[in-house]
Every structure is written in structure tokens, then in C-alpha cells.
Design a protein that fits this description.
about 45% helix, 5 helices, 4-stranded antiparallel beta sheet, about 170 residues, alpha+beta
Length: about 170
């Protein structure tokens, strides 16, 4: 008898939870996709010949790194968030490393960290025929420190980035 009551209470609790989540989903409006624009530079360095090395700010307040070395700056252009898997640009391992670098260092307010994160990003995504040293030179007197940090970031991303996702949840009633 106790066993049946326990099952009944569990079923009732789960049904109540499902109804609550359904009502909550109906009340909270779904977010809609919207266009962004590159709002400007974040922390970093502007070289004497006009090249930027660091993060870019989006108009929603986020900061990010450029994935394509040597391409036009995203500042002032319309942008959209996309699922990186749909682009087909990177292997799963590269995508995991790029996500790790971005999650870990793109939000920084430190210009050395931002510049190093940008170089580490290009070390994974492609340097477009240049060396990390040539990009680090944009940091002027800080080039050596920026380059050393970029190598450290790239190595850390190779060790710690993962393509496996696992989540666990415990529900106690």
C-alpha cells in the first residue's frame, strides 16, 4: 500500500512539474533573432600601420574575437549569431577550442589578454599565411608578452576544450 502511495505521489509531483513548466513556457516570450552590428573595438592594440589586435564589441554588449585573420574588420557591419556547426568551417575539435578561448578570454578588459586571445584564436582557425609573431608585433613593446600568453592560451585550449557534453540532474521528491 505504501509503495502505491509513493508511486502516486511521484506521478502527481511530476505531472504538476510538467504543467508548471508548460505554463511558464507559455508566459515567457520566446526570444527572437535579431541583427547585431560590430560596435567597435574592445580592449587591444592598434598598430602604427592601422591594424587592430584584440576584441571587438557588438552592440548587444558582448565581445568576441575575429575568426578570419586578414579579413575586413566587423566594426560597423551587420552581424548575426549563428550555430558554428552550420558553417562547416571548423572540425569539432577546432570548434571546441575556439569556443573555449572565446568563453574564457573574450570578455576581458585587459588589452594583453584580449590581444593574446585573438592570436590564440587565429592559431586555431588559421593564420592566413602569417606567423603568430607577425600578429603579435601589432602590440608594440608588449609583443613578447602577448605572444607568450597566446601560446599558453592555445595550449590550454588544446588540453581543456571538449566536444563531449554531459549534464546530470537529480530530482528529489
Amino acid at each position: 500500500m505504501t509503495h502505491r502511495i509513493s508511486h502516486l505521489l511521484t506521478a502527481t509531483a511530476l505531472t504538476g512539474l510538467a504543467v508548471f513548466l508548460g505554463v511558464l513556457q507559455a508566459l515567457v516570450p520566446a526570444s527572437s533573432a535579431h541583427s547585431l552590428s560590430g560596435a567597435g573595438h574592445g580592449p587591444g592594440y592598434l598598430s602604427s600601420d592601422g591594424w587592430w589586435l584584440g576584441t571587438y564589441r557588438l552592440d548587444d554588449g558582448a565581445q568576441g574575437f575575429c575568426l578570419n585573420a586578414g579579413k575586413t574588420s566587423p566594426t560597423g557591419y551587420a552581424l548575426e549569431y549563428v550555430d558554428g556547426d552550420t558553417l562547416g568551417w571548423f572540425s569539432p575539435e577546432q570548434a571546441a577550442r575556439l569556443a573555449y578561448i572565446s568563453r574564457t578570454w573574450a570578455g576581458t578588459d585587459d588589452r594583453r589578454t584580449a590581444a593574446a586571445g585573438q592570436i590564440a584564436t587565429w592559431m586555431v582557425s588559421g593564420l592566413n599565411g602569417h606567423s603568430p609573431e607577425s600578429y603579435a608585433a601589432r602590440a608594440g613593446a608588449d609583443a613578447g608578452a602577448v605572444l607568450a600568453l597566446a601560446h599558453s592560451m592555445a595550449e590550454e585550449s588544446a588540453r581543456l576544450a571538449t566536444i563531449a557534453v554531459r549534464a546530470e540532474a537529480v530530482v528529489e521528491l
